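in:
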């Protein structure tokens, strides 16, 4: 079934600069609402976005109730987001991933960066987990699922449309198998290490592929070392540290089920004898560990986003500084601190500044020795800074 973009969306004078520069978002205050009343649109309606002079700026689908009221999927051309074009976009994304990853474990589609706004697809071998993050992209879900089946012939596709962002938009949670059958947990590999991801009940799609390149770099720092993995989730960092030769790994998380996952993944890799867990609030537990005289050669900090919105930057910055100070107090001299952030609003420079502030408070000095970013399955759109969110900083305590 083909949906034709039968309606034009006209922008106000001067509001076309960003799209001419390659951006993919149209804000509601950029629309000429006399020519294109937003009330005439429903979520998912396709439009041809035009400048004042009629120039075609791109094709988009509408989200008329949102501040970003239109999301472009094709620049400078008028084209339907139909089954053929969706298969083209997903096929192009698939080819990019398969060109850099030997095994089929990766983020297959990353929203705007793959010109599939609102869509996230994570691949776990023969299985796929899909996130639909707004009402507009839901209009095309049938074609998306069909394209994935044609491209991958998966054993199962799980829809995890239950993100916080959806709830903030007033959209209902949806969690269902839309093709085949999907087990509660899926086994996959990252950097040669085996994991089981709780795709039904875990965070997001059950796993975070984004830090894979930085986690691979742990191999240079952990051999024969004691490691503390804070905010461990199911052990993405810690289990890989164990596999790369760490003498001991302690995983710290507030979630009992996540720590059960750590132990299961340790056993899966034959590392149960060197991996231990500790449940509790990270700041409180780290302070208690310091009081107990605990020390580690490598401390890994991969917290959730402390800065959800720009207005939270000051408070979030203080939270990053605090957690890094606690990490440094648990770190042996010449030890390595790996500090990560998934807060898009916190710049890499601000993360380093928070680490330096933490070092001053902890009476330590730091050398930044290496830095990491999101992997090639999370490509960055050059015109959309929001697609670049991930940072990892490796620093030595001197």
């Amino acid at each position: 079934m083909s949906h034709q973009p039968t309606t034009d969306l006209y922008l106000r004078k001067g509001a076309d600069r960003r799209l001419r520069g390659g951006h993919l978002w149209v804000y509601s205050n950029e629309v000429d609402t006399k020519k294109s009343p937003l009330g005439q649109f429903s979520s998912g309606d396709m439009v041809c976005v035009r400048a004042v002079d009629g120039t075609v700026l791109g094709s988009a689908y509408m989200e008329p109730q949102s501040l970003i009221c239109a999301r472009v999927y094709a620049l400078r051309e008028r084209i339907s987001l139909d089954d053929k074009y969706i298969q083209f976009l997903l096929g192009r994304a698939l080819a990019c991933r398969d060109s850099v990853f030997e095994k089929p474990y990766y983020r297959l589609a990353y929203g705007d960066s793959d010109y599939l706004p609102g869509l996230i697809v994570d691949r776990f071998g023969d299985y796929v987990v899909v996130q639909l993050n707004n009402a507009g992209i839901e209009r095309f879900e049938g074609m998306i699922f069909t394209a994935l089946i044609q491209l991958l012939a998966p054993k199962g596709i799980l829809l995890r449309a239950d993100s916080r962002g959806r709830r903030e938009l007033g959209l209902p949670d949806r969690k269902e198998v839309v093709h085949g059958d999907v087990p509660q947990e899926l086994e996959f590999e990252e950097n040669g290490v085996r994991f089981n991801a709780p795709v039904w009940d875990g965070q997001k799609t059950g796993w975070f592929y984004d830090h894979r390149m930085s986690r691979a770099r742990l191999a240079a720092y952990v051999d024969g070392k004691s490691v503390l993995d804070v905010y461990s989730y199911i052990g993405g960092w810690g289990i890989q540290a164990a596999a790369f030769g760490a003498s001991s790994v302690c995983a710290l998380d507030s979630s009992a089920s996540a720590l059960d996952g750590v132990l299961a993944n340790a056993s899966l890799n034959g590392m149960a004898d060197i991996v231990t867990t500790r449940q509790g609030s990270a700041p409180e537990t780290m302070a208690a560990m310091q009081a107990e005289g605990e020390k580690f050669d490598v401390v890994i900090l991969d917290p959730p986003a402390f800065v959800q919105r720009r207005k939270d930057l000051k408070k979030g910055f203080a939270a990053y500084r605090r957690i890094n100070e606690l990490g440094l107090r648990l770190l042996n001299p010449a030890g390595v601190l790996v500090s990560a952030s998934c807060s898009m609003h916190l710049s890499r420079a601000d993360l380093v500044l928070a680490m330096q502030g933490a070092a001053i408070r902890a009476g330590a000095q730091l050398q930044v020795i290496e830095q990491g970013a999101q992997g090639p399955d999370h490509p960055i759109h050059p015109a959309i800074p929001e697609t670049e969110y991930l940072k990892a900083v490796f620093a030595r305590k001197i």
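note: The CA atoms of residues 225 and 246 lie 5 Å apart.
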